[in-house]
Amino acid sequence: MRERPNEDWDGEVPDARSLLGWPLPERRGSIPSLSWLVERLRDSRPDWGLLESFVEFDPARYVRKTLAKTRACELLLVCWGPGQGSLVHDHGGSSGVSLLVRGELRETRYAWAGDRLVPDVSVRAAEGDLLLEESDTIHRVLNTSRHGAVSLHLYAPPMEGMTPYDDQVASLKPPRPADVGAGRRRRPRAG
Question: SUPFAM superfamilies in the record, alphabetically (predicted)?
């Protein structure tokens, strides 16, 4: 299915402390590393009773809801119906970690092979598993099961944008980002 996340939601969200057991950092740059995010989310015990009230499935597309956002990070809830998945995409330079709260998902990571993106590694995640996204990760997430899946995503800094790649283009020939000073890479434009 095509990626068309449903963000049409205006419900009241409790604070992150209620959901995770700890508050989200407020200051940009206050998160020391991806491993810090991993440890925090891994050690969290999300309150399913609270989360369940935000779970919503749409038969046409997966549903993504922003639960909390600070200048340092953002917390998203994603509800994946059977067969639903994202396009191949990056996270616009943000790093993140996802916790699979219910169900199972398959993540396929892509790597550059010359000027092409090709599937590199595919893993299955089950309830309680974590998926890590480095700032340069390009991947696709798909619910291959016959049941809904629910995942929590914590990104730092908050995602300012992400580059989606068309499935056919991703496996054929998107432009490779050029290296741009001090380890930063220019992202190709979505087209």
Answer: RmlC-like cupins (SSF51182)
